[in-house]
Fold this protein.
Amino acid sequence: MTAGTLVQAALTASADELVRCDARLRAGDDAEAVHDARVAVRRLRSDLRALRPALDRAWANELRERLRWLGDELGAARDAGVLLERLSRDVGTLRAPEAAGVREALEPWCAARDAAYARVAAMVLEPRYAALLEQIVAAGRAPHAGGQAAEDACAFAAAVMRAAWKTLRKTVRRRSRPPTDLELHRIRMKAKRARYTAEAVIPVVGKRARRFAREVEALQNVLGEQHDAVVAYERLCRDGAGGDHAGITGELATLEGEAAQRARRRWRKAWRRVARRKRRFWSGL
């Protein structure tokens, strides 16, 4: 197998997922469809970057930039939904007197979620969206090859994994002690790219790449929980302060702050599992 074949398989997988999500997005208010489409866009953008040595650079960069708009629209809806889910879950732990006014307290976040989903519903009807979806499908069928497309797929997989690992490890090592919330978010982003790259090379590496991807996903999930809790805490403090429901939003902010601290305490253990030398499967390729 050549690097070009490997790259085409990765792009095709994301394109096919987006096509499947398209029908679900058009059908209505489907949170899982929004989530799956957002993941597919992120994976596609990550692959266009990580696997770029086997692609035409200008073509890959242009498609990545066009995908940014789609990712932003899906991301806004998904983030609004996640925030509302977190707050709704937290409500169950409030004292009964606090819970009495919870529906009114959550109304701004319900409205924000509904507005974000309405924008997605409008987006899928836009000519710009249809044209982009066609371009994505075409990219999966016939990506524009670059200089390393004819290389051996195993050698290519080793090279792109070394690059992804180097970036992730450098980001972890350069963190403050203790790390800031922004630094943890950056580690999460680099971990996600390393995971997507590992998953892209599974066709030529097999279970070793799959195991590494699972370990990185566990790190990503811990950091994702920490990031979501921090975002919820900041939004509650910023948008929920004052007013008739300040008591409820204050309680919710406390819960999210505690959740952020719990996740913060767990990330180092997850990182140590990822960093074990035996997981670096690309060394033996």
Residues 219 and 272 are 9 Å apart (CA to CA). The first helix runs from residue 3 to 27.
